[in-house]
């Protein structure tokens, strides 16, 4: 999920991209469920712009020609299975799991870091729990994606569902934190930071489920000594969640 | 008239009828009927949508004859591919208008040189033929809402969105026209549409 591709969502729904960019963005969409939700909403938004162009009197000849041409045009056959509601729902669930997997791969790089609260559970359990939690966030109808490059280097993607009160944070390509140091994750409401996770020593990428999100307006990353800090020493990068 | 009858039972029953019959089928319902080959539903859908499809095509391609061709092509395509419409992914009107905009944009991009068109857009940008506009109250309220929401965008957001949508320009062309860096234009388009979305209260609630 490259930040650069994702910012094309606006240009894409406005048809302001060229064919190559359209294809690239559609590939991105295929593996990004929250992006599909955003694009769907922006499409509805853009369609409303046509309200301002409506003409009252459409030529009667145009109506006749169109209806006549339609009458002699065979319709595309769509298989009953594809059109049925049940199957459709199944497909969406599948895509969601695929989207979660894509997020995991993007965040994982070589070794996936799980930071499932403080429970001591096996990696295997953690990963399926984590996948479920990630899917639950990505699946939320109100899920929104925020992406930013971080000041020290690297980038953060934060997917937030206010309804589910959870978020998924993807950190990638952070600079090495330094010997005996780690990255910590914070949710900030006003000027009050609340710790929501940390990376393992030396880790520079992760996928982390965070929450409760509450009314936090900003996500932040700080660099701390191993063992962590109660308050962030210095926030290195932030992502605004609105 | 049955309504005048003294029978209160019947009167009550009849009063409950008008809301059902007076509510025209939504575009979503019509399109689903069209997908099953219902030609009457297609005619009704045409009547509901042609004004916006033609208006949009005229705004983008700027040539009335070509705008009619685009409208015919789009509506026949709606008939042909109605089975692909998936209500879980958006409304019928957005589906149709997405197709219309794409078709109109393809046409201007393939037919006219960039510089040529840029001048035309500059000359006609602010002129909207209001005399042709529907006076239907609902439509007017909806249009006013769109304008009010457009007004809430920053000037760069608004210009980026309108040049792309109504002018059919790529974001590169918009960046050139506004003398603004490419990444800024991309971001302004997305931010502007997100602000519009929130202002219009659009949410895919219960979908997907």
Question: Looking at CATH, which topology of the largest domain in chain B would you report?
Answer: Arc Repressor Mutant, subunit A
Counting structural domains of chain A, the number is: 2
Low-confidence stretches of chain B: 1-21, 117-135
Compute the number of helices of chain B.
11
Protein name (chain B): Sigma-70 family RNA polymerase sigma factor
Organism (chain B): Micromonospora trifolii
Domain RNA polymerase sigma-70 region (chain B): 45-112
Domain RNA polymerase sigma factor 70 region 4 type (chain B): 143-195
3D structure, described in words:
The complex is a heterodimer of chains A (242) and B (208). Chain A is α+β, with helices and mostly antiparallel strands. Chain A folds into two domains: 3-50, no CATH class; 89-240, no CATH class. Chain A has helices spanning 3-6, 9-13, 19-30, 33-48, 60-71, 80-83, 85-108, 123-139, and strands at residues 144-149, 155-161, 166-172, 181-189, 192-198, 206-210, 218-225, 235-240. In chain A, 40% of the residues are buried. Chain B folds into two domains: 24-111, Orthogonal Bundle (Rna Polymerase Sigma Factor, Chain: A); 113-208, Arc Repressor Mutant, subunit A. Chain B is built from eleven helices and no strands. Chain B has helices at residues 8-15, 17-22, 27-35, 39-61, 64-81, 92-111, 114-124, 137-151, 155-165, 171-178, 182-200. In chain B, helix 3 packs across helix 4 (39-61), helix 4 packs across helix 6 (92-111) and helix 10 (171-178) crosses helix 11 (182-200). The longest helix of chain B has 23 residues, at 39-61. Chain B starts with 7 loop residues before the first helix and ends in an 8-residue tail after the last helix. The model of chain B is unreliable at 1-21 and 117-135 (pLDDT under 50). At the A-B interface, helix 2, helix 4, helix 5 and helix 7 of A face helix 4, helix 5, helix 6, helix 8 and helix 9 of B.
